[in-house]
Amino acid sequence: MNDRQKALKKLNELNIPYELIEHKAAFKVGEMDDLDIKNKDDIVKNLFLRDAKGGSIF
Predict the structure, then answer these.
(1) How many angstroms separate the CA atoms of 40 and 43, rounded?
(2) Whole-prediction pTM value?
(3) Number of structural domains, the chain?
(4) What is the Cα 23 distance to its own chain's centre?
(5) Residue range(s) defining the domain that contains residue 41
């Protein structure tokens, strides 16, 4: 199981609602205009942190 699958599994286990929208990476706010994402007012940046051994995700 990769890190992404582990994170999604944890969200499901904790019954945390989420919407997964897949798109190419955007490293600057201006690049998001090219992604054709609806409801741009709802865009959030996500950040997952983990410990050095990869055992905990925050």
Answers:
(1) 5
(2) 0.52
(3) 1
(4) 11
(5) 21-53
